[in-house]
Amino acid sequence: MMVPQTTDGPRYAVCSFGGTIAMTGDDGVAPALDGDDLVAAVPALADIGRMECRAVANVGSPSVSFDMLLEGLAWAHRMVDDGAAGVIVTHGTDTMEESAYLLDLLWDRPEPLVVTGAMRSPEEPGADGPANLLDAAIVAASWQACGAGVLVVMNGEVHRAVTVTKTHSFAMDAFASPWMGALGRVVEGAFEPVTRPDGPCPAALPIPERVVNVPIVYPGMGCDGTVLRALLATEDCPGIVIAGMGAGHVPESYLDAVDEAVSRGIPLVMTTRTCGGRTGRTTYAYPGAEIDLERRGVIFAGMLQPLKARILLGVLLGLGESGQTIAEQFERRGYLL
Questions:
Q1: Which of 147, 263, 274 is nearest to 202 (CA)?
Q2: Helix or strand holding residue 31 (H, E)
Q3: pLDDT given at position 45
């Protein structure tokens, strides 16, 4: 549906999935507004261009599915192929970083695709949704966002999908990129980059028919590998991501299960459970550390946090990839900075 604004200027696609930005209610909030409602609440969007909206879903973001995202992606492709200058995705913040990264892996157009949402619902004092939506449109209209991959715009900051994470459950400045900082900010109605990637973004992956559901194992002190062994005992264990300690380490009690997974050809991807930094390569050699695990055949995810490593592995498995190809993709995408 087109929201009447202006007949002149560029056209932008607004793809809504629900989330806090679209929630209202008296006894707790729930999704109620669609993209047309959100756009109508921000008259300044008319100065940027025409906004064409589609509601793919209207749910809390924990209920956003891979299939919903693939549907939204297909619509976004059609819109830019039909002349839209950019795409704005409104989405809940709980899983925003995951959705943004999935879209980033599959977005193969130079037109900007920008994801935004809100930490406060529209009826709360200080609601941030309108400002975030306007900022997202400003970024989508900027030539400096072209070819930059999928971007997340929240609280005036612009982040790359590959680096951004939600760091607080309620704060307005909940989103950050611990590894490299924000890509830029929206200041006085313009997108001002403060950093740029060292090289071009990796080429988009083909769109899979489905994204495989990959479990994450989170070892803690005293864990004995029971969860990992239980996953290996299931009939369908396509791959596993481990949120490793420190630079990507596990207790020695995990090693028999690690060896079993590798021997069965099950991709085992190691990440770090810390909020910043990447997995190690050559520092620690004790049993269960990176040098030992790499020799055993474990794949390391570099800077990709567990949730994003899970998304990448799920896409690759959905494409039918295995072994060396999966390892090469993690090397390419986990160490790109």
A1: 147
A2: strand 30-31
A3: 98
The single-letter DSSP state of residue 310 is H
pLDDT, position 54: 98
- Class for domain 11-193, per CATH? alpha beta
Amino acid 257 reads: A
Closest-CA residue to 198 (of 271, 148, 140): 148
Q: Do domains 11-193 and 216-334 have the same CATH topology?
A: yes
195 part of the active site = no
Report yes or no: 244 and 217 within 8 Å, Cβ to Cβ.
no
What does R_g of the chain's alpha carbons equal in angstroms?
Answer: 21
Structure tokens at 240: 């596993």
Residue 60: what pLDDT? 98
Q: 279 to each of 145, 160, 201, 299, 307, how far by Cα in Å?
A: 29, 19, 20, 10, 14
Beta bridge partners of 151: 114, 160
Question: Using H for helix, E for strand and C for coil, what is the string for 173-226?
Answer: CCEECCCCCCCEEEECCEEEECCCCCCCCCCCCCCCCCCCCCCEECCCCCCCCH
Catalytic site residue from 7, 20, 93, 325: 20
DSSP state of 281: S
Sequence ranges of the domains in the chain: 11-193, 216-334
Q: What's the token pair of residue 204?
A: 């988009």
Return averaged pLDDT per consecutive 10 residues of the chain, 337 residues in all.
57 98 95 96 98 98 98 98 98 99 98 99 97 99 96 98 97 94 97 80 94 97 95 95 98 97 98 94 97 98 98 99 97 85
Fold of 216-334: Rossmann fold (3.40.50)
